[in-house]
Design brief:
By secondary structure, the protein is of the alpha+beta class. It has two domains: 140 residues, Trna Endonuclease, Chain: A, domain 1; 90 residues, Orthogonal Bundle (Arc Repressor Mutant, subunit A), CATH 1.10.10. Helix content is 42%, strand content 22%.
Length: 250
């Protein structure tokens, strides 16, 4: 992955999509396998079988792969990075995916983590090829696996905007009134818009270019216990806060 100036990380390879998808499926109780019989990701829970095809872009090749996988199971998802804004072209593509009976998973990034979420479930009634399905089951049954659940699988799914807001709130709670340039250095350029618009009412400007957290922000931040803990465990966040706290004492 590559870290961008807005504080997020860009997914540069299809393989970058695998860890968050694996964590999502494991959180739903599936054993997860990769690259079996041309399938990118397979999730198995007893007799339930889920297949996920990964691509950096939502294109015809991905649609074709999804349709082919419907021979193996009725539960086939396509997975792509989440777009920051939905436009008409994207909505039309989603309609096509639904008409084909496929599901959609998107992977989004925030300054805290990279996370997969289900946008909509597959609804296919195509007849499954039982012989081909059995070949896939034999393949994964013969593998030796040790599933590792990702550290953020039990953290609720929010938007990247919400998570960046939570990051900023944690910074201001821990350090106190802080200059925008310092907040931006950790939370990314999105911090400028979040602080100026103050959509949630969590922040206040104490003087030019400097912000603090409001009583509303402190109270509502308590509702995000899991994600607060996830952030506070990160070494880069600890070092960032220690550095700013030290600079304030000088």
């Amino acid at each position: 992955m590559q870290r961008l100036s807005n504080g997020t990380q860009r997914l540069v390879k299809e393989t970058d999509l695998f860890p968050p998808v694996k964590a999502l499926l494991e959180s739903l109780g599936f054993d997860v396998y990769a690259e079996a019989i041309n399938c990118d990701v397979i999730g198995r829970k007893q007799q339930e079988l889920v297949i996920v095809e990964l691509k950096k872009n939502l294109n015809l090749e991905l649609l074709s792969q999804g349709v082919q996988r419907q021979k193996l199971t009725n539960k086939v998802f396509l997975c792509v990075p989440e777009k920051e804004k939905k436009n008409k072209a994207l909505r039309l593509k989603e309609q096509v995916i639904k008409r084909l009976g496929l599901g959609l998973i998107t992977v989004y990034t925030s300054p805290i983590r990279t996370t997969a979420k289900i946008v909509f479930e597959p609804e296919s009634e195509d007849r499954v090829n039982l012989i081909e399905r059995q070949k896939l089951l034999v393949e994964i049954d013969n593998r030796s696996i040790n599933p590792n659940t990702g550290g953020s699988t039990k953290v609720p799914i929010y938007t990247a905007y919400k998570e960046t807001s939570i990051v900023i709130a944690n910074i201001l709670k821990k350090i106190g009134p802080t200059k925008l340039k310092n907040i931006r250095s950790f939370a990314g350029k999105r911090a400028d818009s979040i602080l100026s618009k103050n959509f949630y009412g969590w922040f206040k400007r104490v003087k030019r270019g400097e912000y603090a957290i409001t009583d509303t922000g402190l109270e509502e931040l308590k509702s995000f216990k899991e994600i607060n803990e996830l952030l506070c465990r990160r070494e880069d966040f600890k070092l960032f806060c220690e550095k700013l706290t030290y600079e304030k004492t000088q």
